[in-house]
């Protein structure tokens, strides 16, 4: 199986699981299941989606391992697992012992914005396809995609320098926009974190942006980034005075979303450099995230360096 075929099979399997994910929410909307490795409350829906994707994706030829925001360690296709500590600071040479025959390693946020399930607002699924054992960096990210569970189910994928949006119906993708690009005249912004926890530098930047763009913030990164991809603008979950690395996870959220936005002609930063230049030291490492039109990303970088 060629690399392209494996990536296609991964996206196809993610799309095929979406009717079951939507259906699963009916009975799993309110029940809390524990905490994830980042110390956040998990819903039963988070756990269900994680298990479903693990099962479906590890069954694909060419997939060596699976990691997700909802579990501590990595599961390999050969049935072995590695805990998060044993992956810390690992050397990235070769893939021997990292999952058997497959060349691809998947990092998923099974349900992004799952706190939106209770109020019945949008949420997503994020997938990053890496050609090195996890935790790998932007240079090893060969494809990325997300599903948005909104009034429609849509899927956006980035690979080979192109971003495609599809409508998913009955678990199958129907191409809607073959070459998605960020609009040149940005109109929306969405910033996460409590305003009192913003740094002075970020607050000053936010004041400027507020005067130029209109607020669109829904509490699921995928929904907020979809606003930016559609209308142009900037999404940020900045470092906070209380949490300098913000909330979002580099491997599961920051890198795939940066790859999608950059491929669509936009830019990303952690405040200092493109997220795609980063390699996480740890599986669940957090990072500030800024994605959107280049002008707004560059202005964020200069505001934060003051
Ligand atoms: O509730 P807040 O602080 O606004 O945080 C919202 C952010 O948290 C997230 O929900 C975190 O993702 P998960 O739901 O996958 O943990 C992002 O999607 C979103 O951008
Ligand atoms: Mg998330
Ligand atoms: Mg999640």
Automatic annotation (TrEMBL):
Residue span, Fructose-1-6-bisphosphatase class I N-terminal domain: 101-163
Keyword annotations from UniProtKB, A to Z: Carbohydrate metabolism, Cytoplasm, Hydrolase, Magnesium, Metal-binding
Residues that bind Mg(2+) 2: 109, 112, 253
Pathway(s) of this molecule: Carbohydrate biosynthesis; Calvin cycle
A single GO molecular function term of this UniProt record: fructose 1,6-bisphosphate 1-phosphatase activity
UniProt xrefs under InterPro entries: FBPase_C_dom, FBPase_class-1, FBPase_N, FBPtase, Fructose_bisphosphatase_AS
GO BP annotations, alphabetical order: gluconeogenesis
Cofactor note: Binds 2 magnesium ions per subunit.
Binding site for Mg(2+) 1: 69, 109, 111
A GO CC annotation given for this chain: cytoplasm
Region (Disordered): 70-103
Residues that hold substrate according to the record: 112-115, 217, 247
Domain spans labelled Fructose-1-6-bisphosphatase class 1 C-terminal: 182-304
Catalysis performed (reactions): beta-D-fructose 1,6-bisphosphate + H2O = beta-D-fructose 6-phosphate + phosphate
Cofactor requirement: Mg(2+)
Subunit structure: Homotetramer.
The family this protein is said to belong to: Belongs to the FBPase class 1 family.
Protein name: Fructose-1,6-bisphosphatase class 1
Organism: Halomarina halobia
Gene name, Swiss-Prot/TrEMBL: fbp
């Amino acid at each position: 199986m060629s690399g392209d075929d494996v990536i296609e099979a991964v996206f196809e399997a993610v799309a095929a699981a979406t009717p079951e994910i939507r259906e699963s929410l009916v009975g799993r909307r309110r029940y809390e299941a524990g905490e994830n490795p980042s110390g956040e409350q998990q819903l039963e829906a988070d756990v269900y989606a994680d298990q479903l994707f693990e099962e479906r994706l590890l069954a694909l030829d060419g997939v060596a391992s699976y990691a997700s925001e909802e579990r501590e360690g990595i599961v390999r296709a050969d049935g072995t697992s590695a805990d998060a500590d044993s992956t810390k600071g690992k050397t990235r040479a070769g893939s021997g012992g990292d999952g058997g025959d497959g060349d691809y390693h998947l990092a998923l946020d099974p349900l992004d914005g799952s706190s939106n399930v209770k109020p019945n607002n949008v949420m997503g699924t994020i997938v990053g396809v890496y050609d090195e054992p996890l935790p790998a960096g932007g240079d090893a990210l060969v494809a990325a995609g997300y599903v948005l569970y909104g009034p429609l189910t849509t899927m956006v994928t980035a690979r080979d320098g192109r971003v495609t949006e599809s409508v998913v119906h009955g678990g199958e993708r129907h191409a809607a926009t073959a070459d998605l690009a960020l609009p040149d005249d940005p109109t929306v912004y969405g910033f996460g974190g409590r305003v009192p926890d913003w740094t002075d530098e970020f607050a000053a930047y936010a004041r400027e942006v507020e005067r130029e763009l209109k607020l669109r913030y829904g509490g699921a990164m995928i929904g907020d980034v979809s606003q930016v991809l559609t209308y142009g603008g900037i999404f940020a979950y900045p470092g906070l005075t209380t949490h300098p690395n913000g909330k979002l996870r580099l491997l599961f959220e920051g890198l795939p979303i940066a790859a999608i936005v950059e491929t669509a002609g936009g830019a990303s930063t952690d405040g200092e450099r493109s997220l795609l230049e980063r390699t996480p030291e740890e599986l669940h490492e957090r990072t500030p995230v800024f994605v959107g039109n280049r002008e707004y990303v560059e202005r964020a970088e200069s505001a934060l360096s003051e």
